[in-house]
Task: inverse folding
């Protein structure tokens, strides 16, 4: 990848829940056939609680978006107090080249904000 070192190729994103207590889970390609399963919190996103109608609606929205892609690109910004990576997630349906997704991918965090299903938080 030509981007900074904290950009990672990520495959097999599972959408269990998207809220403060249940982040995204993915398998990260560390290189040399080494994969690491990690929990992510989307940067600047405050999602509804999982046991609410809004939480389930957000989960379905996210599952629909991510069902169209085989992998995503992560840009991480450190670890929060719960040990989750704070991440920006980029995806591009139908694209198989990670370089293209990294350069031209759609910003998942922004898609969630545009859908008005989550709140922006600093």
Result:
């Amino acid at each position: 990848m030509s981007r900074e070192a904290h950009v990672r190729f990520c495959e097999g994103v599972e959408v269990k829940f998207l809220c403060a207590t249940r982040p995204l889970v993915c398998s990260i390609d560390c290189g040399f056939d080494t994969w690491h399963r990690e929990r992510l919190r989307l940067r600047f996103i405050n999602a509804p609680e999982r046991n609410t109608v809004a939480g389930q609606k957000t989960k379905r929205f996210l599952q629909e978006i991510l069902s169209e892609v085989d992998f995503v690109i992560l840009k991480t910004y450190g670890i929060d107090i719960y040990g989750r990576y704070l991440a920006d997630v980029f995806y591009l349906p139908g694209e198989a080249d990670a370089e293209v997704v990294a350069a031209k991918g759609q910003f998942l965090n922004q898609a969630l904000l545009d859908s008005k299903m989550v709140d922006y938080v600093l």
About this structure: The two ends are 28 Å apart (CA to CA).
